[in-house]
């Protein structure tokens, strides 16, 4: 696999949560992957960035208010034929059923573990690059 740079959109209304997501992913979630980040603090900003830029992965805060990451994930999946893979960070593992309903490709649980986060992000980016369906 090439050393391509991917764009990851980080969404949360809380800048500290976005910083924690950025640190957990890092600029190199795997040796062969480089990541740059774009930040969205609101629903409108998130949708605008998805519309205006080539986003390779959405990393959304499921606990954001007033628009949670699960609702945004579902809307993007419903509105776009070729939506980027979506990973939602949730507070409780028991909320994975909501993530399944929202058609997210992966979930992570607060607090983020850097190893698990990097592996999840790398898997989603590799799947997108190969044209395969994202992780379940």
TrEMBL record:
SUPFAM superfamilies: CheY-like. The modification 4-aspartylphosphate is found at residue 61. Keywords: Phosphoprotein. Residues 7-125 form the Response regulatory domain. PROSITE patterns: RESPONSE_REGULATORY (PS50110). This is Response regulatory domain-containing protein. The lineage of its organism: Bacteria, Bacillati, Actinomycetota, Actinomycetes, Micromonosporales.
